[in-house]
Design a protein that fits this description.
binds biotinyl-5-AMP, SH3 type barrels, BirA Bifunctional Protein, domain 2, alpha+beta, Arc Repressor Mutant, subunit A
């Protein structure tokens, strides 16, 4: 019911709506209306209450809970269920547990803070409170386990488009899992899966974006290579606007991938905004290091490099330093 109260206030934003009208429209008592208004105020909604006039929504806070996001979300599956937490060890870890217990495809876990945010290969992901987007998407695609890496490219395309659209900043994609602003990392993607030999049980796509974070407060070693959306945009940016855009674009590209069995749409975006292609790269894989030139992305989202002998090679995953 709180959602319906909020929805009605949003429809009438900037105008008063009386407690009586709200209670008639929603079929609840005026005391119930008052209780929901009180809770919304506690969440940070600025609502003016004037006796005989009623309630007027003045300003919405930048919160990422189910009520706030779903009222503005027009996706079919992604975000159908949103689990919003104040603090958690890692949204990917939590999403895995939910997915294993029959969590539906499209469920999202999103947290204000992660105490043990994870990067690839056991690295840490710094996730301070209230300033970033730390979220994980649960997917249950019918694909081969070897195809899971493609979903990282879908997420990278969606994040780059979202940052560009919401802020106008020129977000670039560093293959395979980083989004870059002004040569620094603003977002990392961690795709994990549970699979049998030939089938995927679930895929978790974790997306971490520094939105309004104070980079000065970041650990010394990360400060040199990391940035925030705010630092590039020169102003505070709505996390909610970015999340909504990512979910919409992700769904569009993901459904296209599932239905057409082709990654082409995402690859086009990844190529267009790539900061890797055309540049020398150092590929660091577990067993070897290659210095080469990044020349292309395949239709499958793999990186094509020209090695020092002039031969072309396809790289499926790895660490790239430009
Ligand atoms: C990544 O790993 O970039 C994947 C990061 C995924 C984070 C999301 S947040 C929601 C979900 N839940 C999780 O627990 N994780 C996901 P990788 O390419 O391995 O890069 C990790 C490296 O990035 C670290 O070793 C640091 O050098 C750097 N780093 C750590 N925190 C950062 C931050 N907030 N911003 C920029 N760089 C950071």
């Amino acid at each position: 019911m709180k959602k319906e109260v909020l929805e009605t206030l949003k429809h009438n934003k900037g105008r008063f709506i009386s407690g009586e009208e709200l209670s008639n429209r929603l079929g609840v008592t005026r005391t119930a209306v008052w209780k929901h208004i009180h809770q919304l105020k506690e969440e940070g909604y600025r609502i003016e209450s004037v006796s005989k006039k009623g309630y007027k929504l003045l300003e919405e806070p930048d919160i990422l809970n189910e009520n706030a996001l779903q009222l503005d979300l027009d996706t079919k599956i992604i975000g159908k269920r949103i689990i919003h937490l104040n603090t958690i060890d890692s949204t990917n870890t939590m999403a895995k547990k939910i997915a294993a217990e029959d969590g539906e495809e499209g469920t999202i876990v999103i947290a204000e803070e992660q105490t043990e945010g994870r990067g690839r290969l056991g690295r840490k992901w710094v996730s301070p409170k209230g300033t970033g987007i730390w979220m994980s998407l649960i997917l249950k695609p019918s694909i081969e386990p070897t195809e899971a890496a493609k979903i990282t490219q879908i997420a990278a395309a969606a994040v780059a488009l979202a940052i560009r659209k919401v802020t106008g900043c020129e977000a670039g994609i560093k293959w395979p899992n980083d989004i870059i602003l002004e040569r620094k990392k603003v977002c990392g993607i961690l795709t994990e899966m549970s699979a049998e030999l030939n089938c995927v049980n679930y895929v978790i796509v974790g997306i971490g974006i520094n939105v309004n974070g104070d980079m000065e407060a970041f650990p010394e070693d990360i400060k040199k290579t990391a940035t925030s959306v705010k630092a590039s945009a020169g102003k505070t940016v709505s996390r909610k606007a970015i999340v909504l855009y990512i979910l919409r674009e992700f769904e569009r590209l993901y459904l296209d991938f599932i239905q057409s069995k082709s990654l082409q749409k995402s690859v086009e975006i990844c190529k267009k905004y790539s900061v890797t292609l055309g540049n020398p790269v150092k590929i660091i894989n577990r067993d070897r290091q290659i210095v080469a030139e990044a020349v292309d992305l395949t239709e499958e989202g793999e990186l094509v490099i020209r090695n020092q002998k002039g031969e072309l090679e396809k790289i499926i995953s790895g660490e790239v330093s430009v």
